[in-house]
Amino acid sequence: MAREYVGEQKLLRDVHHDVKNNLQVLISLLNLEGRFDTSTKKEIIEKSGERIRSMALSHEKVYESEDIAHVNLNSFLTSFVRDMNALSSQPNITTNIDAEDIEVKLDVSIPLGLIINEILSNTAKHAFPNNEEGNLNISLKKDESDAILIISDDGVGMPEDVGPGNSLGMTIIYSLAGQINADLTLDKENGTKYIIKFPIEQ
Questions:
Q1: Distance CA 133, CA 91 (A)
Q2: CA end-to-end span of the chain
Q3: pLDDT averaged per 10 residues in sequence order, the chain, 202 residues
Q4: Selection from 106, 112, 105, 113 nearest residue 83 by Cα
Q5: pLDDT digit string (tens) for 130-160?
Q6: Whether the Cβ atoms of residue 104 and residue 200 lie closer than 8 Å to each other
Q7: Which CATH entry fits the domain spanning 2-199: 3.40.50.300, 3.30.565.10, 3.40.50.10420, 2.60.40.740?
Q8: Contact 140, 100 (CB under 8 A)
Q9: Which residue from 176, 185, 129 is spatially nearest to 157, judged by alpha carbons?
């Protein structure tokens, strides 16, 4: 009984630690927003709401799972894309998901979810101007001890001079990629393609 109590106490401490870290990440994102972004207050609130939703979804997937220490990224991606307002309001974009069942810890899924949110928000906003039709492809595969997430579109592409330092979205993406020890490759030819390779166990 004492051993079970100690285990429960450790689990509660881990949960509180995760919540604290998540709030710190959110505060950092809001601070960046204030320094970089020139959007209207309404747009900033909407962006912040999407980021909070992505963090909440990670917790939701943990609670739904029999393994409360891990998030199934296949389920996470499917739910994320289905419920993302920025994409659901763009019927001209066809989204394709091909994801394997890969389990990661909550402190990996949180920053990963925020990365995905930034990429998909940028795609919905910029890749297909004037409601042009196009495709958004999301692939998640296991490569030995790593996972490889590829998000690509066949839209108008990204200007060559856009990158971390002069773009809030790119700054967030690269910063969060560092948090999960990810190698990030960005291909700007024939649309935009992000290749994110990260260790599954961290």
A1: 8
A2: 30
A3: 47 53 62 60 68 72 68 89 82 95 89 89 91 96 97 92 78 90 94 97 90
A4: 113
A5: 999 999 999 999 999 999 999 999 999 988 8
A6: yes
A7: 3.30.565.10
A8: yes
A9: 129
